[in-house]
Model the fold of this input.
Amino acid sequence: MRSTRPSRTAKESRPAARRLINAAAQEHHRFGGIIASVRQARNLLADPTLNVFENKEAFLFCNSDRAKALCYPGRGGKNEVPSLDRCKVNCANIARTDTHARQLRDAADSLGRQAASGLVPEPLADRLQERAQVMAELADQHDNERVMAGTGAEL
Done:
């Protein structure tokens, strides 16, 4: 399932950030936001540089490049769509926006509150707290590595 392209003013991070920005610009330049024919739609779907998927569960975009993907089970199969339920944090296809980082922080805060509530058993509270910490670190990593669309400059 393809996602809408990220905002032209968004700031992205992670290895695929520059590819995501370029894909959004290329898609806009080639199609102007309007697909007027079946041929244009086929061309859009056939262009591997424009394969961008949003994984809302993992708070990221997947700018799918099969050669770099860590999510394809056999890596030799014919499935053209990445397995979004198998995203790995070290995948070179990951790109995050400021919105994703904000959502990560919100989710981390929620898990931290659950862990500190005293309403869950200690082993579960420990796992919740660990997951909250990982999510907060991913959001911080985004802030430290993000790239501004249109400038090429890192922030």
